[in-house]
Amino acid sequence: YINEVIDQMIPAVAAEKLAEYIAVFCETGFCSMDETERIVEAGKKYGLIPRIHANQLSRSGGVQVGVKTGAICVDHLENIGDEEIQVLMYSSTMPVSLPGAAFFLNLPFTPARKIIDAGLPLAIASDYNPGSAPSGSMPLMISLACIKMKMTPEEAINASTVNTAYTLG
Q1: What is the pLDDT of residues 135-166, one digit of tens each?
Q2: Which of the 8 DSSP states describes residue 91?
Q3: Of 41, 83, 106, 133, most Cβ neighbours within 10 A?
Q4: What's the pTM value of the predicted model, to 2 decimals?
Q5: DSSP letter string over 15-81?
């Protein structure tokens, strides 16, 4: 399947100009670190900007692959530790929390305080989809960030506006 994505799907999507980004879910049971890197590098050859869904269910190495490949962002981060924070410190990759996914899947929330206190920016998005985050309400995401992630209202508003805008170029 990975070869089909790289050899057929990415070239077809690029030829039709159907996407600006290439997103990969780097997680146990989905794409490994090596598979994620292969897919991202193939997409970059066609001018697609990488975005990595990382560390949602486990410490998957997705953050490291995201930084290594120059991803604009790494999303989820429910399972992020000091090692991943250090990797992000000297990169242009934006950490992104998706509090709706954590809420609806009953997962731990991204440790926003730890990320922000380390000096990193943090973006917030909804991850709106019917399977794991069935709400696109940004006021709800901001509220969850304040209540569950211990962000100040100012931090949460900045995270959901200017920091998220960065991830869209």
Answers
A1: 999 999 999 999 999 999 999 999 999 999 99
A2: S
A3: 133
A4: 0.95
A5: HTT--SEEEEEESTTSB-HHHHHHHHHHHHHTTPEEEEEESSSS--SHHHHHHHTT-SEEEE-TT--
